[in-house]
Amino acid sequence: MDEEYDVIVLGTGLKECILSGLLSVDGLKVLHMDRNDYYGGDSTSLNLNQLWKRFRGEDKPPAHLGASRDYNVDMVPKFMMANGTLVRTLIHTDVTKYLSFKAVDGSYVFSKGKIYKVPATDMEALKSPLMGLFEKRRARNFFIYVQDYNEADPKTHQGLDLTRVTTRELIAKYGLSDDTVDFIGHALALHRDDRYLDEPALDTVKRMKLYAESLARFQGGSPYIYPLYGLGELPQGFARLSAVYGGTYMLNKPECKVEFDMEGKVCGVTSEGETAKCKKVVCDPSYLPNKVRKIGRVVRAIAIMSHPIPNTNESHSVQIILPQKQLGRRSDMYVFCCSYTHNVAPRGKFIAFVSAEAETDNPQSELKPGLDLLGPVDEIFYDVYDRYEPVNEPSLDNCFVSTSYDATTHFETTVTDVLNMYTMITGKTVDLSVDLSAASAAEEY
């Protein structure tokens, strides 16, 4: 323990594990510690006994739910875009060799009290019951513009500078209805609220293109993939990567206390009377509570069911986005469902999550619109947790604190935070411009 490290990482949440892997690959000497005796921190996956103990305080779930070890229930359920930043990071670091993925069956959006499959291309838009005939034509024209748009080729811009034109102005050009705008902005571009409408349209167009590219990559029913045995596999994959490149791991280390020198810069971490020296600390908000501020709460329901979510074409894995405007909320609600086909539950069992940013003093009741979509449930658990973001200046204290996980059921915001932190820590950007077609190790989906 009494050694000097370039970086000490505290907590084995996904963000921290990705960073320890990337920093170890860079040749930095990394020590990774966690007060828990398991990997994953807040983003771990629990078996049935662990789930019961955490939410019911008893260690004896009913026998009809099946074997405890057959469950891998994510505490932060998220799907990955098949062509998104996390997949590129996995391929870039070769962590794919530790994991197996499977495509997610369906992607749906809630509109006027019903759920519909999300159309992602001009052809799907023409078939979608979401829109009337004339609206379909307008939407198809908009999709063709997005598909043809190439930032480097002004001929595809149709005279529009998308760094200046707002999304609202771009959409107005095509005369799309509010309901169509709703599913484009929230279910395709994956914006969490409506602020994007008054921001430059380039970001929304890029997000829509990512959705379409991800959908095309595996020709499945959705643009998402998800690891077999749950997301708890991801932190462990990056932890293995770090270990291969010389990173040191210490779990079950109580009271990891960050130490500072006279100038207020981090100089080490003390646990059980021993201090490891370091130049920088990376951690989740729980390790440096005086350097973060609360920015909200997430409320989540976890349901064990014996059937797929109704009206999703019998999908064994699915995401449903409920846009804020459809619910009269300030932010979106998300439904996530996975099952035995991804090895997260015994055969015949499904795990569904309903997640949202809490907006009232009675957060559980806010989830009703999402829960109403599930049908009968065998068991249900509720979880509410505070979200934090760092308020310190890392250049002054060398502390790099991650932001708490949001309510979204996809990973794009998570990985953006990680890559920004990596740049702050190293002064470099991760080059993810790998040739995906050549990355055969990843094509086991």
Summarize, please.
This is Guanosine nucleotide diphosphate dissociation inhibitor. This protein is an alpha/beta fold and 445 residues long.
| Low-confidence sequence ranges | 434-445
Helix content: 25-40%
Contiguous helical run count: 14
Computed structural class? alpha/beta
Which radius of gyration do the C-alpha atoms yield? 22 Å
Number of strands: 19
Q: Roughly how many Å apart are the termini?
A: 40 Å
Note the overall shape.
globular
The biggest beta sheet, please? 7 strands, mixed
Average pLDDT taken over every residue: 91
- Strand fraction equals 15-25%
Output the keywords:
14 helices; FAD/NAD-bd_sf; 19 strands; alpha/beta; 445 residues; disordered C terminus; RabGDI; single chain; seven-stranded mixed β-sheet; globular
